[in-house]
Amino acid sequence: MLASGNIIKMRSEFAEPIRYFLPLGETEVSLNQFLGKSISLKFTGQINCISCGKRTKTSFGQGFCYNCLQTAPEASETVMRPELSKAHLDIARDMDWAREHDLIDHFVYLAISGELKVGVTRHHQVPTRWIDQGASDAIILARTPNRHISGVIEVFLKNFFSDKTNWRSMLQDKIQPVIDLPEEKMNAFRLLPAELQLYFHPDNQVWKMIYPVNHYPEKIASVTFDKEPSISGILAGIKGQYLIFSDGKVLNIRKHSGYFLEFSAIQ
Known about the structure:
It is a single chain. It is built from seven helices and 14 strands. It is of the alpha+beta class. The chain has a domain at 105-208. A seven-stranded mixed sheet has the order 1-14-5-11-12-13-10. Strands 7-6-8-9 form a four-stranded antiparallel sheet. A hairpin with a 2-residue loop joins strand 3 (19-24) and strand 4. The chain is globular, with a radius of gyration of 19 Å. The N and C termini lie close together (8 Å). The relative contact order is 0.22. The mean pLDDT is 95.
């Protein structure tokens, strides 16, 4: 099989196990079928900005040219730091974009991805956000009417919970002590000041993500197309936005958004 094109982050579908698809230009490759098979990804040297499409020598912020990094609404600092969103005050790089992405319901959640962490996602990104992080379990803590308030809650809870994913532990599937997410949710609720407790989400559904992984590596070697234009091996698993190879190599697909790749596989 052969396909080529500019890649963006893998698309996923919630199932047991999670189903993964690699966008390559106008085509999309279903990846689960290649577990246990040899695959090859070759970087042609071409990078295109995922916002404007312009060819660029260097990719910034997971797929942007430098100009779009500074101006595109999807590259705004509020993407990584939601508490900085001012869309509710009619201040944004692009208010039309902000109305669709910032001025909508957001969830504050607790998830297990290497360790217990707190995070924020747009309501329509459940459970995609957790899958992208490689979380094994997640629960919704709060529902807010805009991005700013969810960010304020997250910042407050960062005093007590991590907000980062330990990607190495996640990819090695290191066994965690039993974590009772509904209990941790109530602990987090009690920590919040009264004005933020108003956004508490009562549903205690625990989402569980099962990933298509044949075996996890004991040792990890992160690889990148910037150093290795051709990356190949037997696909041992897919988790988060990573391809896991049987020899312990791991490739972050999202990091290379905008790269033009040639994909081939032997079934």
